[in-house]
């Protein structure tokens, strides 16, 4: 038995997408400017010498322009604040995303391994849905919102866009159809056939369409 | 010796305000709908029976309308997602805020005891500043962004507004001038006199203006 | 671009399945016996009066017998230590699972929102695979193991079984094909069609086979 | 509406100063001796080769002598255990402070971004106060102790001193009057004028007295 | 191969005792006054209605008088701040202890399951020691300070005393000789005989002396 | 007053050993392959370039063969997954152990400073016990499971073995008799004499037997 929650958000309605809990290191410095030139990675890049920090390290215009929704297969674009475009958010436990969706475009079902998400629709009408985890005898008492969620622009004519807060400096994202059908090396056909109850031709067809 | 960082953000430039680290309970349920009717508080309200959850628990229109900037003393308004308006975000480790600032209005210097913040200016030109913690012999090597920060609408004619993500479900806020001069009971005059190097009349005058 | 890792484990080879980070409350008591009779849920059940604890609260035979792999659609069974069968593990941050897989049976692609996993094959030959998260411009430098993983019994004649440690008292599980195709209410067809690049008939067929 | 708590502690009465939650990395080594010679900072200095550790790394006499209360503007001195004087406390999540206050001296209102604090008065009579965070519609049901706190030596003739435990290896400190009036670069006058409801001359006067 | 660190601390030398990492819930309220009358325990007592908080909830004189070192078998006394004597420190992640040791008295080898400790000798000369964990092939590269530590008053004539900060609101303590030889029910003799390489008579003798 | 819990587990009964809470860094990468060649240690080894990861980094046969129970003094062997034999489990918050015990062999009383443990007996009959922490006035209301635990093979003829999950990537272990009697440098005799109420000859004898 499964549960799903679908709801429509429009202009400036905030919607919670429940995902995995924020996973962040607990900062011991008032801040850390990510030093991407370092050869070392300890659960993320090290900190630059704080004396070299500038106001630019704390601001970005990465989200200022709409993303290109014609790239990719789903008619959507997600731009995230990162160490690269906002070095000062290293160890701050938070990112912000701009989501642009073409008419009837889709942010396909995906999950964030390291972040919860709150999305605020700024323009248009977006269908937001998230799927509950499969119930088994452990959880029969509980409805549980899942991590797999999607956003779909219900408007057939106009693009819509939204802003999300994500509770990790590096939330990660795993897009379900790509993870299952277009990984390299591919998942063995037998696994996909048994998992989705499809035959080898269907596996090949889905794969080809998602990769092609 | 002190350090401060001031920068101007305009339309859709994200700005990081470094504050205390996100403080959140680690969820053991896929989600928790805050049950505000419970007599018990264990580091926040308990969870409602998940079987009673509805899509409404995951969406809010609290941020959809501009806040009233004529209330209060500083020409600004902050509306936050909360257990009350978005019950589903209990244990999700994240909130979202809408900040409206009247022309030349101010969100006064304040800090969030339990959250980092990323602010995105959606309209207008906002001066954002944060002050570094006082240096002492422990930290002489470091410039440190502080928690005390403010937002000021540089535009003398038009309101501006912004969206913030905060990395706690209950970030808290402590507004410096109110905390120091208008607490009840008040801080002893001798403390304020010695702290700000002002005399009793100045203490009384500031108090009266902030309270009056 | 995606990455996947497939490997075969046989008798008593341990295999790490990287999943979301363990999510657990930090205990303030030497232990907590889950009190499932309580009407309250605060990030899990409350603790029983510790004076009523007995050795039984710390042991379980739930894993002692093979699970029934003929129930369900994939020829596999997963039995987990839980508050119900091992009350003493509340707040201990760990569970253990017994996985039985029929000949050519499958534990379908799934993820654990709140736990890492280490699996030890005790009998037979199991193909274990996990898929890397989709790369985007944030992560181009990194190969990342994902959370979506599966186990497949390569042996056509004999069952195999394994033991897993999971780093959460309540790891959760989200089985990809069921989450996407058999949730209730269902994900809108348009979403599945666009996500998997299949038509409505294929959506219906997959759904029916997984539900039927 | 604000709330403040003022209380007097004398010889060996412990007093809790509620501040931000302890922020510490979770150690994976039994200990870590801070290696201050390393060019890298990953949320703090790296660990020295443990084989080079000596008993000296775990003891300090930094707190053995009274601090000089005639330096600085407030007639008080705070000495903290640090990586420098107690290298072994890296990753231990705790520091200890010695606080000396001259007759009628003041530890001005300040907050610790990363630590709770328990203060124990060892000699004299100290007025300890902390201010509650400003209430807004989110918190109207709650009195909340704040982070901004101060210590004042009520004795006009004799110095007093105290010991504090702080729940972080690097608690940080932000002294309100210095953060607001003497940062470099300074907060814009307009911000201070609007925040404290004072005119430009008052801003200049306070600044000069605190800096002079 | 084992390692131990012994050092002498005298008047006001701080000494770090490395123990398990602080284990605390992350507070979502500015504070929580422990409500010991509640029937429920969720990783500690719930919070009282904050509106009922008083200054008394934040101060205690529990540490003001020397403990009675003639009670117990080791000539020492440890008094800790607790929910009972300092209700306001619930969820603050910190306690403070007063340790009194009679001439040649001992705080026997013990460990704190949930806290690091920093001890400051206020009077006398105390030998502080802690034992490194046993090395095995996993850790041959590392010297590791352990959790098992003791304090011994080297002075044969005068009592000494110290203050400790502990980085948990409920650090716990496990005194090695009592845990191994005087538990109820007792550890099986065979276990103690094999563990300490002693015979049954020695087991009985030690037990009797520690219990008698 | 002490409490202990002893119970017998046989074939495939899981038994919880409550120890300190899992202590792990919160990962910000989907995984981290321990780079043991690095000169730096920041709460554990850094991560290898993820592009160099191979399936081998996620699997180990270290647990596939019985450990040698004739080495060491107690007739038991514990083999753990480590950075060395399973590099991919760095930052995963979990290890797995294989425990082999000769007839009437003992895993002596010990504690894990950084992990909870769940043990599953795969063959034979093992007596598992853990001792409650000593009670003092803080905890009189509570029975508390302790960290000090042991495993004893009740079978006089056949070896037994078990698998444990431990909730840390580096749980650590401190074996009580070795920590107290065979550390280098040794604990002062006076401490052991007073702690265990034995005389100097008994201290010497126990030491010699455990070291010899």
TrEMBL record, chains A, B, C, D, E, F:
SMART domains associated with the record: Cupin_1
Binding site for Mn(2+): 110, 112, 117, 149
GO terms for cellular component: apoplast
InterPro entries, alphabetized: Cupin_1, Germin, Germin_Mn-BS, RmlC-like_jellyroll, RmlC_Cupin_sf
Residues that hold oxalate according to the record: 112, 117
Listed GO MF terms: manganese ion binding
Entries under CDD domains matching the protein: cupin_OxOx
Main location: secreted
Keywords: Apoplast, Disulfide bond, Manganese, Metal-binding, Secreted, Signal
Domain Cupin type-1: 61-204
Signal peptide start and end residues: 1-22
Family classification: Belongs to the germin family.
Record protein name field: Cupin type-1 domain-containing protein
Species the sequence originates in: Carnegiea gigantea
Lineage start: Eukaryota, Viridiplantae, Streptophyta, Embryophyta, Tracheophyta
């Amino acid at each position: 038995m499964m549960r799903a929650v679908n709801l429509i958000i429009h202009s400036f309605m905030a919607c919670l997408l429940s995902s995995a809990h924020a996973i962040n290191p607990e900062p011991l410095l008032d801040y850390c400017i990510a030093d991407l030139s370092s050869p070392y990675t300890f659960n993320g890049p090290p900190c630059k010498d704080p004396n070299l920090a500038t106001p630019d390290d704390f601001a970005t215009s990465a989200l200022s322009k709409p993303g290109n929704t014609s790239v990719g297969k789903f008619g959507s674009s997600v731009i995230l604040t990162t160490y690269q475009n906002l070095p000062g958010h290293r160890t701050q436990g938070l990112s912000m995303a701009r989501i642009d969706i073409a008419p009837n475009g889709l942010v396909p079902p995906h999950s964030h391994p390291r972040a919860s998400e709150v999305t605020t629709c700024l323009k248009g009408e977006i269908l937001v849905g998230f799927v509950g985890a499969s119930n088994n005898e452990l959880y029969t008492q509980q409805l549980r919102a899942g991590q797999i969620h999607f956003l779909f622009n219900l408007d057939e004519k106009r693009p819509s866009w939204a802003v999300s807060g994500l509770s990790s400096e590096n939330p990660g994202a795993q897009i379900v159809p790509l993870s299952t059908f277009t990984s390299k090396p591919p998942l063995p056909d037998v696994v996909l056939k048994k998992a989705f109850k499809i035959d080898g031709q269907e596996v090949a067809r889905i794969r080809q369409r998602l990769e092609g």
